[in-house]
Amino acid sequence: MTVRAWPADDLHAEALQRLLQDRCPPALVRAIEAGASPAALWADVESSGHADALVAEERGGAGLALEEAYPLLELCGRLALPVPLAATLLGRALLDRAGVAVPPGAGLTIAHAATLDAGGLHAPQVPFGRVAGHVLVQADGAVLLLPAAAAQAGPGVFPLDATLAWPHAVLRDAVRVPGDHDLLVLQACAASALLAGALRAAFEQALAHAQQREQFGRPIGKFQVIQHHLAVLAEHVLAARLAARLGCTAARDGAPDRLRVAMAKARTSEAAVEGAATAHAVHGAIGFTAEYDLQLHTRRLHAWRLLAGSESHWHAVLGGALLDGPHEATLDAARALTDRDTNEEPTA
Q: 120: left (phi > 0), else alpha (psi -120 to 50), else beta?
């Protein structure tokens, strides 16, 4: 199996982290979740140029490859960023490849499971639907770019999500995105990186708590049971990050590779459940309180685990590819998938 040497640091992610570490504290995340405007935060992100990292240089972007942008996507989850930067990065890349002008203003989000009926277009549980400016919507085989402000918004399960509905009058003026696109895969790619980032943040918080919290005259991190919890959590974090990086490798057209994304989303969704539970086990009851920052990440772990298909959905995708493919052993199929050059066509 080919082993890639992933860089430990990334200049783009470091620059974005320096920008946001003071401008996006946990207090602002809570405020935007409670209904405060994200406009100032998004203006800072937009002015930094990071939202166009995957757009070609000749059209004003940084021209990064998808795998080069992975640290930016992970950082969005690590910071619990309350604006849709990850989806905007991937969505603007799709629009750039399709020759569609990138809309100005607030970021965009993705709705892969919309339905069209006599009343209009309905998109349930759109992630970041309450704070996005535009939405890439897939319905009846077509991909449309729609303004979020033109939709009737209903509440979502997660505070930043929304159920959106556009009347037919709005749809007549919608921008149709040419080409064959799979928004489910695109959204799962973003969700995998977000999960990896949120898991990393939960581990960092758990480790800091174990070093600082004392019981019986010494830090709780000195006790074997806490060390075991931290070791298990570290394993999940590492596995999730490796899987999410694999998901951010592209097929020939620059879009995420479906089977690699399937592996990434299945593994990161699995890790989300165990990782959230383990981080809370280290913290005890304090981690569940609204005042404590850990819940900002563990709530997202549970929400993003289900976003764009849980692990069971993507396990079925991988299982079908294994049964239909030329390999008799699962390990052989995994090796063929991870060894394949990213410029080759994927094999089902």
A: left
Q: Tell me which amino acid residue 46 is.
A: E
The DSSP 8-state label assigned to residue 161 in this structure reads -
- Which are the contacts of 86, defined by CB distance < 8 A and separation ≥ 6? 72, 73, 76, 77, 190, 193, 194
Structure letter (DSSP) for residue 142: E
Task: Please give the chain's pLDDT, 348 residues, in tens.
Answer: 233 333 445 788 888 998 898 899 999 999 999 999 999 999 999 999 899 999 988 888 888 999 999 999 999 999 999 999 999 999 999 999 999 988 877 799 999 989 988 889 999 999 999 999 999 999 888 899 999 999 999 988 899 999 999 999 999 889 999 998 999 999 999 999 999 999 999 999 999 999 988 788 888 888 899 899 999 999 999 999 999 999 998 766 778 999 999 999 999 999 999 999 999 999 988 888 889 999 999 999 999 999 999 999 999 998 888 777 666 566 666 666 666 554 444 343
Task: Tell me which DSSP letter residue 41 carries.
Answer: H
Are residues 228 and 86 part of one domain? no
Q: How many domains does the chain have?
A: 2
Domain ranges, residue 303: 184-339
Phi, psi of 274 (to 5 degrees): -65, -40
Rounded to whole angstroms, how far apart are CA atoms 68 and 54?
Answer: 9
> Measured between alpha carbons, how far is 192 from 242 in angstroms, rounded to an integer?
10
The CATH number given to whatever domain includes residue 207 is 1.20.140.10
Question: Any residues with CB less than 8 A from the CB of 212 and at least 6 apart, and which?
Answer: 219
For residues 44 and 172, state if they share a domain: yes
What are the residue ranges of helices labelled H in 101-223? 168-171, 183-212
| Unique residue bearing structure tokens 């490859």 | 65
Contact (Cβ atoms closer than 8 angstroms) between residue 298 and residue 276: yes
Within-domain flag for 4: no
- How far is CA 207 from each of CA 27, 204, 212, 231, 269, rounded to the nearest angstrom? 22, 5, 9, 10, 22
Q: Tell me the residue length of the chain.
A: 348
Round to the nearest angstrom and report the end-to-end CA distance of the chain: 19
Residue entry with tokens 């009343």: 119
> Model-level pTM?
0.90
